[in-house]
């Protein structure tokens, strides 16, 4: 068997969810809502299941969904996206894989920011590339031009930007986006932009994609997720967006990963994207759950880092007076307090990982959040 996988640890999300299942713990680790999907989305799915074909849809996605995705971004982010540039994938994780396989050749270096979602680097390595991590520092996790310039070499081919950023819940500023676009155009880099949290922002500002910056349309792969927009993570409907010529190449990678995505789910997502009230109801709801988690934790004396986006908020253990590193906290809290969390250092490669921060998921009923906070407060 391939040593790369034989020696690879289980992803932290499955590890913590497995512990939560086995121990009957409240799972604030892996991000997923407990609420049922919006009724209009379920209606669309029931209709598609009854009325539409259950056979292979087109490899690049249903044309109706590709057009709906283009309309969604025209409406919400003022982006002019050609439907031919949209490839429907089986979740954003598959979009990340297809993008990396389609962009990275052996020996290419790819810039990443730490902390980073754990799927990027293993796939870059599997493609023969070399991940080069640039650390972001708490509490603001800001992008530092000097560090980026220092990491660039003649082999640098691409940059991965996750904005809004999981696990921190922070945003790239307009100045950050302008700077990153300058870096990409000056060094002829492709930007792989994981924007799955674009609809889960609480700052009142619409999401701005790196794709919209000058010079970026032809060199950006923008990745999105119906699972995150509608809170249906198990549907595994995602997409990648690129200039049509680039999308055609990335589709060659996609065709041998999953080939297609279940058509009834694609129809339901297309209907959902055309009803702005559904996505709005979802993000309004998550603004409530985010406040409930942040306020409850603060009330119980936990020091929380600000979260402007995503389903997550972070606790600063050191500032909370908890003398445990993040992995020890997560392993003990799930067993003893019966609350699962994600240690931030599990999403960090390279030296100097912060070891005093854990991530909690807030998109849960308030009563469950209260119970989890109480259990953590009694145990700490
Ligand atoms: N994106 C999810 C999270 O950060 C995890 C998804 C997964 O486990 N594949 O919690």
TrEMBL record:
<dbReference type="GO" id="GO:0005737">
    <property type="term" value="C:cytoplasm"/>
</dbReference>
<dbReference type="Pfam" id="PF00155">
    <property type="entry name" value="Aminotran_1_2"/>
</dbReference>
<dbReference type="InterPro" id="IPR015424">
    <property type="entry name" value="PyrdxlP-dep_Trfase"/>
</dbReference>
<keyword id="KW-0663">Pyridoxal phosphate</keyword>
<feature type="domain" description="Aminotransferase class I/classII large">
    <location>
        <begin position="26"/>
        <end position="374"/>
    </location>
</feature>
<protein>
    <recommendedName>
        <fullName>aspartate transaminase</fullName>
        <ecNumber>2.6.1.1</ecNumber>
    </recommendedName>
</protein>
<dbReference type="GO" id="GO:0004069">
    <property type="term" value="F:L-aspartate:2-oxoglutarate aminotransferase activity"/>
</dbReference>
<dbReference type="GO" id="GO:0016212">
    <property type="term" value="F:kynurenine-oxoglutarate transaminase activity"/>
</dbReference>
<comment type="similarity">
    <text>Belongs to the class-I pyridoxal-phosphate-dependent aminotransferase family.</text>
</comment>
<comment type="subunit">
    <text>Homodimer.</text>
</comment>
<dbReference type="InterPro" id="IPR015422">
    <property type="entry name" value="PyrdxlP-dep_Trfase_small"/>
</dbReference>
<dbReference type="InterPro" id="IPR015421">
    <property type="entry name" value="PyrdxlP-dep_Trfase_major"/>
</dbReference>
<dbReference type="InterPro" id="IPR004839">
    <property type="entry name" value="Aminotransferase_I/II_large"/>
</dbReference>
<dbReference type="InterPro" id="IPR051326">
    <property type="entry name" value="Kynurenine-oxoglutarate_AT"/>
</dbReference>
<dbReference type="GO" id="GO:0030170">
    <property type="term" value="F:pyridoxal phosphate binding"/>
</dbReference>
<keyword id="KW-0032">Aminotransferase</keyword>
<keyword id="KW-0808">Transferase</keyword>
